[in-house]
Structure formats: C-alpha cells, structure tokens
Amino acid sequence: MNADNDNNIAASGKGRLFILSAPSGAGKTTLCRALMEHFSDMLYSVSYTTREPRKDEKSGADYHFISKEDFVTKIKEGKWAEWAEVHGNFYGTSAEFLNEALASGSNVLLDIDVEGARQILKRYPDSITVFIMPPTPGILRNRIESRGADSRDVIERRLKNAEREMAQSGLYRHVIVNNSLYEAIAELVGIVEMHRKGVRHEAQKRKGQRVRGSKAQSKKSEE
Ligand code: 5GP
Q: How is residue 53 annotated by DSSP?
C-alpha cells in the first residue's frame, strides 16, 4: 500500500484521524481513556509491540503483543501505516485497520510517538495532532519513578527520550500542558469537538453547493 492509496482511502470516508503523543509520564494513557469514554463513536487503534506486557495489560486491548520476527516480517510486507523503535522495542500501527476505519467514516485515535506521528502526517496530512506536555521536567521524573514499573536504566532512557520528544512538539497542531488532569481532559475534548464539527460543517457546505448549483455546475464539479 503506498501513500497515495492511503490518502485516497482516507479522503473517501469522513473519518478523522487524531494523533496523541506525549513523553511517558505525561498522563497520555489516562487522557486517551477519557477521550474514548467521552466519544463513544471514536475507534482506538490498538498498536502492535514487541515489548513484554506489563501486569494488568491485556493483549488486544492495550496492545497486540507480537514477536520481533513477526514484526520484522510485517515491515517487509508493508503492513504498517507507521512504525518506530521506542525505548529498545518496536511499535507499529496496522495500515489495514486504519484504512478500513477511515474509509468507513470512523474517527480514529492513535497513541503513538513523535517519529510515528511524523510518518502518519506524511501519509495522512489532514490528521489532527495533539502533544501532551508534562508541567515540569521534575514532575515528569516523579511520575515515572513513582510508577515503580521501570528499572533505573529504563527511567533514565525514558527521561532522555522525553526531552527529545518535547523538543519536537512544534510538529503538533495543538499542545496541552497537563497541569491539572481535569483541565487537560476538557481541553482535549474541546479540540476533538472542534474538528468533528469542522468535518460536519464542510460536509453540509458541500451538500448545499450541490443542491443550489445548476446541473452544468454539478457536472463540472464531478469531473
Ligand atoms: P509504552 O511502552 O510506555 O506503552 O509506550 C512507549 C511509547 O511508544 C509511547 O510514547 C507510545 O506513544 C509509543 N507507541 C505506542 N504505540 C505506538 C505505535 O504504534 N507506534 C509508534 N510509533 N509509537 C507507539
């Protein structure tokens, strides 16, 4: 599947693609869950990863956990809409899932890193991108350490990666500073509402033009 095909498929549906990125510890998982609860028609793209499941993570819901061999085979087969190596593991988004969801008119939420966002923007330039910033680097460190899920090495790697990702937040259309979870959720919901309305508004405008326009004009616009 090449990028032109992806653009055509995405353009044929009315679904919008929302990309959420954040350094680990910025509260992205909670924000994603809140968004999915608020918008019952939003589809979450469950990523594939080669990392080990954490306790409480469910295969098929949090991630599809696959082997490195399977992941690499799928790279060769062109099955990923995007993929990246993050913290020493592979993560990828299924191109088939994404294209089908968008073509059927669904809004889709992707929780991916900056490198993945860059690749998706090339294939789907209309994607709505949101970056979640932690309030301060100190708070980020506290959050990662207090999870108690990672070794010292992994914590340091995550913090380094966070710095690198935050430096690229200019790539994103919206940036939310997660000072208060309540406010960050409200802001995120507002952004999604705004873009969903935008789609509806454009669709209505197009419909109106077709009704008002003469046959000749309609014909011309169809060509
Ligand atoms: P974690 O291992 O903490 O769940 O995720 C680590 C990082 O990988 C996060 O920044 C997350 O957004 C990113 N990630 C999760 N799924 C994907 C994916 O499918 N593609 C890319 N590029 N990044 C992903």
A: P
